[in-house]
Write a structure and sequence with these properties.
With 471 residues, the protein is mainly alpha-helical. It is built from 21 helices and 5 strands.
């Protein structure tokens, strides 16, 4: 696995190796850094030269190795399945689901520090893991949490830019506007104008990325309070971590909601580089656009119904089931409603995935959270029934490669239970989470000197002529 190789290359960093026999066989050894190594920037400064040499070696020794054959179906199918991006922070397996630097979601839940013993992982811990490839200690996570709080100040003109929009504008439109307004302070943009050497691009990118990650929860919370809570802004609580503070600024101070937000941000943070938002951020950044511009572009991709907007549509669909059939809907009634949805030319939202071929582990960990905290909630019980009813129907259609639930099938029900009932806002939560993954990879894009992305396109006439010659 990539994680094994990363561990060996990270050996210069002061660390101790801890055996983890309780984890699956795929991850036998984890490096856990000592509590004295609290400076994330300093660690990257030591790590980056090693990874730069690693990439040079791969290019020189394996540059001509073929990774597969491109077919016409791939060209016409949105480049689906084509291996064409370097994305270090996570890897998506069709059967196992997402791995963050080699760690599955259950493994992250076991080894990443939580706000309390046995609690959900802190997003700051995942950020450290994505950037360094190492599992941080609680002291390192606390230090990073403190640094993010110090960077979270929002200039007043950002709020004014959002306020210039109608309050009825979609939350994602307002969110993207806020991120674009933050771009005024871009350290990368300033450094590039002054003439920074390309070997140093990663450093102002790091500054922008950490500031952006720190700032987006406050911007997102302001939008929620503006639209749904009469504009009453809630200041940050300096004693809280990233996920807990986000919940607080939204207006939810219950400990379970804070735990849910920590879990939500962690599992939605990254999903390798081929999805629309991640790929868009990478593509725009490859033109040396700064992290704010790149992430704003990624958010516009996330806002699409076939990507991040799906979590909004799932809850709306579930509520339509309740509206028509009642909360105590039987499985037979569910089957009828599902066929009604499919026969009307629509899809059942929350089921299927472009890569996964089994139940999404992000769905599973949310289900486990629900079983622990809200087992009797009617909407959760409905989601459980859907898990039994929907896949056989989709398999019966014979056109679906993956009939199993994805991450969106569950998240809305959990949020709704704790009072965040405004489904139209849910994609903003997704966006806040995705900042961690996109910005982590962007720092490595700059550190490794990845080039401008420029794939080749062809016309239908070219395809026809090429295929006739090949026949």
């Amino acid at each position: 696995m990539v994680f094994y190789r990363s561990v060996s290359l990270l050996s210069k960093l002061r660390s101790r190796v801890v055996h983890q026999p309780s984890l699956t066989n795929s991850i036998r050894w984890l490096q856990i850094q000592t509590s004295s190594d609290l400076d994330l920037h300093a660690q990257l400064k030591e790590l980056i030269p090693e990874q730069q040499e690693r990439l040079k070696k791969i290019k020189s020794e394996y540059g001509k190795v073929q990774l597969g054959n491109i077919t016409v179906d791939m060209v016409l199918g949105g480049m689906r399945g084509m291996t064409g991006l370097l994305w270090e922070t996570s890897l998506l397996d069709a059967d196992e689901g997402i791995r963050f630097r080699g760690l599955s979601i259950p493994e992250c839940q076991k080894v990443l520090p939580g706000a309390k013993p046995g609690g959900e992982p802190l997003p700051e811990g995942l950020l450290w893991l994505l950037l360094t490839g190492k599992v941080p200690t609680k002291e390192q996570v606390d230090a990073l949490s403190k640094e993010l709080r110090s960077r979270a100040t929002i200039p007043e003109y950002v709020y004014k830019a959002i306020d210039a929009l109608p309050v009825t504008a979609h939350p994602m439109t307002q969110f993207t506007t806020g991120v674009m307004a933050l771009q005024v302070e871009s350290e990368f943009s300033k450094a590039y104008e002054k003439g920074i050497h390309k070997s140093k691009y990663w450093e102002p990118t790091y500054e922008d990325s950490l500031s952006l990650i720190a700032q987006v929860p406050a911007v997102a919370a302001y939008i929620y309070r503006r639209i749904y809570k009469n504009g009453e802004r809630i200041p940050a609580d300096e004693s809280l971590d990233y996920g807990g503070n986000f919940a607080h600024m939204l207006g939810f101070d219950g400990p379970e909601m804070q735990e849910l937000m920590r879990l939500y941000v962690t599992i939605h943070s990254d999903h390798e580089g081929g999805n629309v938002s991640a790929h868009t951020g990478h593509l725009v950044a490859s033109a040396l656009s700064d992290p704010y511009l790149s992430f704003a572009a990624a958010l516009n991709g996330l806002a699409g119904p076939l990507h991040g907007l799906a979590n909004q549509e799932v809850l709306m669909w579930i509520k339509s089931v309740v509206s028509e059939c009642g909360e105590d809907v039987t499985k037979d009634q569910l089957k009828d409603y599902i066929w009604k949805t499919l026969n009307s030319g629509k899809v059942v939202p929350g089921f299927g995935h472009g890569v996964l071929r089994k139940t999404d582990p992000r769905y599973t960990c949310q289900r486990e959270f629900a079983l622990k905290h809200l087992p009797d909630d009617p909407l959760f019980q409905l989601v459980s029934k859907l898990y039994d009813v929907v896949p056989p129907i989709l398999l019966e259609l014979g056109k679906v490669k993956n009939p199993w639930p994805n991450v969106d099938a569950h998240s809305g029900v959990l949020l709704n239970y704790y009072g965040l009932t405004e489904a139209r806002y849910y994609t903003v939560l997704f966006g806040v989470s995705r900042a961690i993954g996109i910005c982590s990879q962007l720092i490595w894009d700059r550190a490794l000197g990845l080039p401008l992305e420029r794939p080749k396109s062809v016309t239908m006439e070219w395809l026809e002529k090429h295929c006739k010659k090949s026949a």
